[in-house]
Amino acid sequence: MAARWLAFGALLCTLWPGRASVAQSDLPEVERTAQRVRLVYRPIVGHVQDFHLSLAGSLVYNELNDFALRAEADFRVAVLGIDAETATLGLHVRSGFYEVLGSRTGLDCVGETLVVKVGRDHCIREVVVDPRLAAKRDELDLRTILIHLSTLVDFPNKGLKAGSTWSGDIASVDARGNAIRLLTRNECLGEARIDDRTVLAIHSMAQVPVQGRMGGRDIEGVVAPELVVEVFADTGEIRQASGTIGARLAPARGERLFKAVELRDVRAELVGRPGAAGAEPEGTPSATAR
C-alpha cells in the first residue's frame, strides 16, 4: 500500500497546473456519503478531451525473440449526448504509429470515428459500428484497446475512500460490436484537489479480450493493463493514467503454423487535456445514429 501511495504522490507531482477542462459553474456536485465519494459517469454534452497514448516496451515472438516496441496515438473524445442510462461519445483517432525493429507503420484506424455508448458505471454498452469498419481486422485491434483504455475503471455502486476495493466481471463489446467480457480489479488510493476539482486515484487492473491479424493470420488474446488512473469525481472522466500493459496473442481457432506473440513490460502513459471549445471529432455521426 505504501508503494501505491508513493506512486500516487509522484503522479500528482507531474500534473499540469492551471488547467480546467470545463467551466466550474457547469460542473455537477461531487456525490458524497460521509467521507466517501460516489463515482457516476455524467460528462457534459459538448465537452471534448484530447488524449495522447504512448507505449514503450518489448514484443516477444515465440518466447525467444525480444524486439523493442514503441507506439503512439492521439485521439479525441467528444460527448455527443446523454440520457438517464448512457452517455454517447465520439472517439476519433487523429494520428498514430507503431514501431518495431526501427520500422515505423502508421495506424490503419487514423481518421476513423467510433460512436460509443457508455453506462453510468463507466462501462461500454454499445458501439455503433460502420459496416466497413466491422469488416476490417487491424493488427492489434487497436480500436478496442483505445475505447477500453479511455473507460478503464468501472465505477462501483458504493462510496469510495482510500483503501476501497472492488472487482467486476462485465458484459461489454469490442470495437466491432462483438460481445466480450472484461475482468477488472480496482483499488481507490485516495483523493486530491486539482484545479479546484476533486480527483480520485484508482489502481486498476483489467483483462480485455482482443482479436485481429498478424503476419496474414487471425490471432486472438488478452490485453492486460495495470494503471494508476486519475478520475474527475464530478463528471467521472479520466484525466490521465500511468502504468504497464501486457498482452498475449495466439493463433485463432483453426490457424496453424503461427507462434505466440507477447507484449512485456510495456510502459503506458495516457494523458488527457481539454479539447477546443465546441469541437467535435472530424466526421462524427449524429448522437442518435444507429
Describe the structure.
- The chain is mainly beta.
- The protein has helices spanning about 1-15, 130-135, 140-150; strands spanning about 30-35, 35-40, 50-60, 65-80, 85-100, 105, 115-120, 125-130, 165-175, 180-195, 195-215, 215-230, 240-250, 260-275.
- The strands form 2 sheets. Strands 3, 4, 5, 6, 7, 8, 9, 10, 11, 12, 13 and 14 form a 12-stranded antiparallel β-sheet that branches. A two-stranded antiparallel ribbon has the order 1-2.
- The protein starts with a helix and ends in a 16-residue tail after the last strand.
β content, as a range?
A: over 45%
Radius of gyration: 19 Å
> What is the overall pLDDT average?
82
Query: With helices defined by DSSP (H or I, 4 residues minimum), what is the helix count?
Result: 3
How do the helices and strands follow one another from N- to C-terminus?
Answer: HEEEEEEEEHHEEEEEE
The number of distinct β-strands equals: 14
Given as residue ranges, the uncertain stretches (5+ residues, pLDDT < 50) are: 1-21, 283-290
Largest sheet: 12 strands, antiparallel
The structure class reads mainly beta
**Helicity range of the residues?**
under 10%
Report, as a whole number of angstroms, the end-to-end distance: 45 Å
What's the shape? globular
